[in-house]
């Protein structure tokens, strides 16, 4: 599965330190643009609604994904991990990965190491807990996970991989 990274995890040395020594398999597989979010810096970077952000795609196994969750503080509520659709290569949002919307994902290109075209995972942090100076009322009393998931599902949020 692939994770879009946009902060400290774009640095290969940082990733090697975190995921090396038996913490799972990983491989950088290219650069990408996340449409619909922009990066905001605080104590740690996070994503806020609107804009676009450049980053890298990191292909990981389940063990590495669990390690990334711990690193990002998912269990402590610092960040949430959500799935974002990939572009079909023509700039259109494509939830199943093959451009025809039938859910079978049967088309080559933009595939994970295992050949699948699953959505890309992203980490979005809680601005209030990360020291980000931003007026983002998007949670409106909802959980961060619920707010981010609703935003992803209702907007034109998509990952465009650079070839």
Q: In the residues, how many domains can be counted?
A: 1
Computed Rg = 15 Å
CATH architecture: Roll
> How far apart are the termini?
18 Å
Specify the helix fraction band. 10-25%
Tally the beta strands.
Answer: 8
Q: Quote the CATH topology.
A: Hypothetical upf0131 protein ytfp
- Dominant shape: globular
Q: Quickly count the helices.
A: 3
Q: Which segments are poorly predicted (pLDDT under 50) over 5 or more consecutive residues?
A: 90-110
Fraction in beta strands: 25-35%
The average pLDDT is 84
**The CATH homologous superfamily:** Gamma-glutamyl cyclotransferase-like
SSE string, helices as H and strands as E: EHEEHEEEEHE
> Structural class, judged by helices and strands?
alpha+beta
- At the first level of CATH, what is the class? Alpha Beta
Task: Summarize the biggest pleated sheet.
Answer: 4 strands, antiparallel
Strand order of the largest sheet: 1-3-2-8
Question: Could you characterize the architecture of this molecule?
Answer:
This protein has a single domain (2-122, 140-161), classed as Gamma-glutamyl cyclotransferase-like (Hypothetical upf0131 protein ytfp, Roll). 18% of the residues lie in helices and 33% in strands. The chain has helices at residues 12-19, 62-72, 144-154, and strands spanning 2-5, 26-40, 46-60, 79-84, 86-87, 93-94, 120-125, 158-161. It has a four-stranded antiparallel sheet. The protein has a two-stranded antiparallel ribbon with strand order 4-7. Strands 5-6 form a two-stranded antiparallel sheet. The chain is globular, with a radius of gyration of 15 Å. Residues 90-110 have low confidence and may be disordered. Residues 89-120 have a biased composition (Basic and acidic residues).
């Amino acid at each position: 599965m692939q994770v879009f990274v946009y902060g400290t995890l774009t640095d290969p040395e940082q990733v090697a330190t975190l995921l090396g020594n038996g913490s799972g398999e990983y491989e950088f597989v290219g650069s990408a643009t996340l449409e619909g979010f922009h990066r905001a810096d605080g104590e740690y970077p996070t994503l806020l609604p609107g804009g676009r952000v450049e980053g890298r795609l990191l292909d990981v196994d389940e063990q590495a994904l669990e390690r990334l969750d711990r690193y990002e503080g998912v269990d402590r509520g610092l960040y949430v991990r959500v799935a974002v659709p990939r572009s079909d290569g023509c700039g259109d949002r494509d939830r199943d990965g093959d451009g025809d919307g039938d859910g079978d994902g049967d088309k080559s290109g933009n595939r994970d190491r295992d050949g699948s075209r699953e959505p890309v995972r992203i980490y979005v942090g809680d601005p209030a807990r990360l020291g980000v100076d931003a007026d983002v009322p998007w949670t409106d009393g909802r959980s961060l996970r619920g707010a981010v998931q609703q935003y992803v599902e209702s907007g034109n949020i998509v990952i465009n991989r650079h070839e």
